[in-house]
Amino acid sequence: xxxxxxxxxxxxxxxxxxxxxxxxxxxxxxxxxxxxxxxxxxxxxxxxxxxxxxxxxxxxxxxxxxxxxxxxxxxxxxxxxxxxxxxxxxxxxxxxxxxxxxxxxxxxxxxxxxxxxxxxxxxxxxxxxxxxxxxxxxxxxxxxxxxxxxxxxxxxxxxxxxxxxxxxxxxxxxxxxxxxxxxxxxxxxxxxxxxxxxxxxxxxxxxxxxxxxxxxxxxxxxxxxxxxxxxxxxxxxxxxxxxxxxxxxxxxxxxxxxxxxxxxxxxxxxxxxxxxxxxxxxxxxxxxxxxxxx
Length: 294
Known about the structure:
Elements (H helix, E strand, L loop, with lengths): L9 H27 L2 E4 L4 E4 L3 H7 L2 H32 L6 H9 L6 H11 L6 H10 L9 H29 L3 H9 L4 H12 L1 H17 L2 H7 L11 H10 L4 H24 L10
Antiparallel strand pairs: 1-2
């Protein structure tokens, strides 16, 4: 039986709290960010000068900013690809009947409870060239003790490992939930037909879990672009030689260290529009391969 509101005003009354909250914390800050990107300001707007689109022109003609963009894209690709692949494989293993499955799930999920800054602090000690466990293990196995903080490639590798570890628990929870929602009848029918594990994985499990995979793909891209500023600040501060200077960290430096809020606002808009555009492309391409229902 269809229910209707007695008047046209009542639905807007119910929506009013949401509209107020979104207006205060989303739409108004977004409008102010766009306004700030049009000004050259010193010390959080103490002095402002209207410059139009000069902040955007300055960014797109800056070799350092374009290099930071390339590094961020490469970093995001590694974090998303390694993070999703690894968490999916572990989720498939944990979804099987194991004696210590519950204990393993808890131990693997808990890193997500840590903030990126705390995760960075933990791995900062682990990657310490002189007393870290990573170099101790490498020295024992291969007789090498690399300096993770002075080599640009190793520093970026260190950040990728930390980011994947920090977000691993989040991916694992959703993959496990998706796997447990797959009806046993599909797997049993495949086993009756003689399909092995890899055939089941390719033709049954992966297609049925595609909505979860697509959701995590979008979330992980946003995580790689937006949620790693604390990690970079604790571990490398964008170095060495700006090899780990991600876009979000450059935004942080310009806004809160150099006090150039106009340039920082322009960077935030560019980063936001870039991620939104990338997400729309995913919906147009990857989203078509998602199978809902079973």
